[in-house]
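Why predict the complex rather than its parts? Because the way molecules touch one another can change local conformation, and only a joint prediction can capture that. The input here totals 1051 residues.
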Amino acid sequence: MIKSYAEFVVKFRWLILALMLLIVAGAGVGAKNLFFNNDYRIFFNKDDARLKAFESIQDTYTKNDNVLMVFAPKDGKVFTPKYLAAIEDITKRSWQTPYSIRVDSLSNYQHSESVEDDMSVANLYENGASLSSDELQRIKKIALNEPLLLHRLISEKAHVSAVNITVELPKMLTDEKGVVTPADPTKLGAEIVKSVRDLKAYVEKTYPELTVYLSGIVMMNNAFGEATIYDMSHLLPITLLLILVTVFLLLRSVSGTVITLVVIVFSLATAFGLTGWLGIELSSPVMSAPIIIMTLAVADCVHILSNWVAQMRKGSDKYEAMRESLRINFVPVFLTSITTAIGFLSLNTSDAPPFRDLGNVAAIGVMAAFFFSILLLPALATVLPSRVKQQEDTKTLALMSALAEWVLSHQKALLLSVGALALVLIALIPRNELNDVFVKYFDERIEFRVDTDFISDNLTGIYNIEYSIETKNSGDIANPQVLADIKKFTDWMTEQPEVIHVNTVTDTFTRLNKNMHGDDPAYHKLPESRELAAQYLLLYEMSLPFGLDLNNQIDIDKKSTRITVTMKTLSSKEVLAIENRADQWMTDNIPELKAVGVSPSVMFAHIGMKNIISMLTGTTIALVLISLILMFALGSWRYGLLSLIPNLIPAGMAFGVWAIIDGEIGMALSVVTAMTLGIVVDDTIHFLSKYRRARVEQGLSAEDAVRYAFSTVGIALLVTSVALVAGFLVLATSSFKLNSGMGLLTAIVIAIALLVDFLLLPPLLIWWDKWLNKGQKTAVEQIK
Amino acid sequence: MLLKQTLSISLALAFLSLSTNVQAKAPAENPQQKGLRIAEEGDAKDIGFGDTSANMIMTLKNRAGKTSRRVISIKTLEGKGDGDKSLSLFDQPADVKGTAMLTFSHGLKPDDQWLYLPALKRVKRINSRNKSGPFMGSEFAFEDLGSQEVEKYKYNYLREEACGQGWKCHVIERTPAYKYSGYSKQLAWIDTKEYRPVKVMYYDRKNSLLKTLNATGFKQYLGKYWRPSMMSMVNHQTGKSTTLQWSNYKFKSGLSARDFNKNALKR
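Output of the joint prediction:
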């Protein structure tokens, strides 16, 4: 059957070429549906309990999508007429930011104070340029003592200050003709980013003594897109070049290299075209798929083309050579593609949707690469001119047989040393710590990371936890007992070492109480009756400026209030620790008001662990399916069982190596085991199938079968592994840590897999030869 | 087909000649002047109401559709030469019952405000330039509700168009003259017959549409003064909205300046 297929492909090569073009065009059109989603929320399931709680907070209170602009004066002094005037100017201009609903800065902070029986509410200052030194001192004192400003808009040392722009992205857009269309948040975000970057350019030109730093949710979302663009423009060309050079060096054939390029391009176009048709959103993790697909497509091409070239070198014409190559390679290429696709598909058990998408897109790409390798590749190869010198490649073959001899003469030593190394490395796995620092998802090549690091070091944290404290009845927020409990909680929170700032409505109550009693410090405490508290709240509502309302902190019904805790940059472990402590404290002290802490930081802290647990299922399913395929392909359950060792050990050893070189595991690395399982199994399939053919069909001894396997597939395994490791190492240089970590660990797994297949598998095969071939009659025995 | 075309062309011509005729009768009035004239005429129509009192139910609605209700009674004394004086008294929710606010509105100067908190038993004068801030947590700003003196805006007449119920409206662009206004401009629909403000669209300082106010259920009092029974303000940027339901309008009930001073707050 495979033979007639090979005949068919060579015979109808022009028809196949035309068909392939049609197929890739048909699939490729789907690319018009592709869209990039840079919202960090895509990392969570829509029904994730914490995401839901977070979104309910976002619906109840003012949303906190923002751009935080921080201005650092060269002289390190904020309270100078020049700096304060600049902030005034910048504040005014910030209102022009698209979709902004509120701008907060030192200049427009609504300061309230009491003068006899008057209460005045006004901007903290106006006409900054003309402030006297007395006035500057007064403003400084107010700002540094105001909980709403300190560690939020002004640093403790008064050396940097910020302008915070709150934005609200519309869900629908109305154009000039009144047509309403759903808004694309990525585009809206880009408009905001452009506007604030223009503002930054203006500031740096107009006030050269100021350095501007940009952070906030909008900038973080934007960074996902920019990291991807950076990767696409830097890593893709490198991958492509690397692949072409490798293929050319191996095949020493221009047309072979061109064919490989065409197969890669067609596989990519089909994978992303179908992605578009399926409506899968693009995201930073998904955008590692092009490099993965390219690298894996090369493996298919190399197997078929190298045999083709080898046949021609032996003297066959290009048609005959292709028929023979297809006959030999169809089954292994099919099996390895299937197992690789299964590995990727198992990512569907991941808890983070972008990794499910990555798995599906890569699986589609792998199958597309298979499809094009067995149809497009032979058609193209027989159409394109190709000249190959007749020669026998003896050098590399000699190398392989030398390796085989060395392995055979050091069997025991290899079994012991590689086995011991594997045990040691696997024992190191627990030293890896679960850790995701989501600011560090971006490396220093991305502006957001650098700016955010500066802001965390100098002004405020970008990690936070929000608590929505719920009471039973509407208006209960004014209940003195409730307020006292909230204050106890926020006082406790403020004392925690991780905490930089706590934003709580109780601060507003104590300030107003003081204001309403002629600024008497004795009244800097919570109001004692519900009526008074409720009336203060009303007074406060009346004094709020444009764009601010009570909804920032209190829901419409005055039944619940939001407390926002700002923290230093923490690892996921530390975030979970403070979350747990807060949880325990509330259970012990204010059980009736207990709330769940939510925020992007908390969600990212949980997802690493959740993803590891969910990927355990995926890995198990992939392992079972792949092992079944192997048993079927090798025609022996014993060989299938044995294959578990070279299939599983590499991932185990790689995580041990990881404990030594990095030691932190997050959301991305949890998918590596399942993903690489499908890839490392390819080497095992090739090696074991050749070994078994020699051992059973040709009746060779175990030692000779090892020699045979090395000489037939050794080079191909070496080359494809080198190409794969190189491809994933390119991914390891990604500016997006989820992708770079995944790339590096995958490269390690594949490299170890090759070592295990070459050094540990042969001694194992010989050691367990009797058991493996029990009940199996070798060809020689059958003849007898 | 041909007939229809001819008909529409001749109609258009007739209309054109008519409108040039109208323009010829009122020469030298540019859109700014026309806008101002209409504002002045509207203002003049409301002169002499003396005082009013009314009850208001304010319903706030958030993005998620949750609502909350406040009941307030409001008295207004017509200002002579200056803005109006008004006194708002809270009735619900219960914990703010008796809270009262006295406002002397001034065109381009900050308003004077006093607040009485019954729990504190004290009147506080509130100094604030803050006319752009929200009124009692609603989508209405102080500047949307205060008396609309002519000098508060610069005007630009845009067009005339139908505005529901068979009414025709002047569409006027108003640019706030107050430095601390939250708006870059407003578009106001004023009906041509009685000068009732039917609709206002508010544009924020970056010139994006912020809110739309719709006023409905206009009733005439004392055979002269029109007041809406329902005002609804929708914030397009946040998805929140507020409705004000007015009832129990009374005019000329003999209120005087004595009903609008600090002592009146405590009653």
